Amino acid sequence: AIDVENYHTYEEVMAYLADLANTNPLVTTMVAGASVEGRDIVQATISSDLAANKPIAWFDCNIHAREWITAATCIWIIDTITTGYGSDPEITALVDQYDWKFVPIANPDGYAFSWTNDRLWRKNRAVNPGSICMGVDLNRNFPVGFGGTGSSNGPCSETFHGAAAFSEPESNTLKNLIAADQGRVKTAISMHSYSQLWLSSYSYTSALPSDYTTMLRAMRAGVDAITATYGTVYNYGSTGTVLYIASGVSTDHYYVNEGVLHSYTIELRDTGLYGFELPPRLIVPTATETWNGIKAFMNAI
Ligand code: 0X9
Ligand code: ZN
């Protein structure tokens, strides 16, 4: 068990996932790859019948190191699903319909560094040849629009895109996970903070995808259920129109190259009062409303 009301170190989260896999027959874990510094990148799967090859709801969390509420929310959701299966009818139905897969800490080195050295660290911990600055922005290291608007070729920038698409083992690991389940991924959601936004493709351009009407309907279902919980206001729409243009992001890759129509970035609480340093007392409310949104969204697609 884990104390879902607090933030946890990388080691604590890994120990929780290992314990869950050992004690709960619904849960399996796999080491999907290794970070620059050699930490495991772990995916947890919740399935009531692995052999059935059900459609998948897939989540990456904490691509950005300082966005601690994203791992905390994914952990809360894992805990809620595994606890509720068999007693909560809505959870039971959603687990019987889908396999649920989570990468709770997609950027382990950056996350660890944000605990020990720099709470506001964003990137991974790659050594950049010829520069004293470390780190690549993993959410600029994917191929769609790689190197374009909203990314930087400077290693000291917070949005440094890296030497090439998938130059980083962390982004490469996410690519491999989605590709391994190609054809089964019903939705892929990248959890970020902060701003209270539900974002679709495209991110690399202000042009709208051909599936945008379908995406808007799905996002609206999610956002309405979030707001219905505690009144938290969310905006939604394509990243390039609602937020800003960002090239080389994960979710454009899932949509454009992997054919995942329902590929979204969710920017969790808040809108800037606490920003990335959301107090622990807001973990459970944030996770609760987010899960209500995801359930409504899943039932709408
Ligand atoms: O700039 C980013 O990478 C994201 N915002 S954050 O404050 N969490 O860094 C937004 C990216 C949005 N694009 C998509 N992934 N669609
Ligand atoms: Zn982010």
Verbal overview:
This is Zinc carboxypeptidase A 1. Belongs to the peptidase M14 family. An 8-stranded mixed β-sheet has the order 1-2-4-3-5-8-6-7, with helices on both faces. The longest helix is centred in the C-terminal third of the chain and has 19 residues, at 212-230. The chain has one domain (10-300): Zn peptidases (Aminopeptidase, 3-Layer(aba) Sandwich). The protein has 9 helices and 8 strands. The two termini are 32 Å apart. It is globular, with a radius of gyration of 18 Å. 36% of the residues lie in helices and 17% in strands. By secondary structure, it is an alpha/beta fold. Bound molecules: N~2~-sulfamoyl-L-arginine and zinc ion. Zinc ion binds next to loops.
CATH class: Alpha Beta
Contiguous helical run count:
9
Please indicate the count of domains.
Answer: 1
* SSE order: HEEEHHEHHEEHEHHEH
Average pLDDT works out at: 98
- CATH architecture group name: 3-Layer(aba) Sandwich
Which structural category fits the helices and strands? alpha/beta
Q: Assess the beta-strand content as a share of residues.
A: 15-25%
Distance between the amino and carboxyl termini: 32 Å
| Total strands | 8
Bound molecules: N~2~-sulfamoyl-L-arginine, zinc ion
Query: Which strands sit side by side, in order, in the main sheet?
Result: 1-2-4-3-5-8-6-7
Helix content: 25-40%
Unreliable stretches (pLDDT < 50, length at least 5) are none
CATH superfamily: Zn peptidases
Give the C-alpha Rg.
18 Å
Query: Could you say what the CATH topology is called?
Result: Aminopeptidase
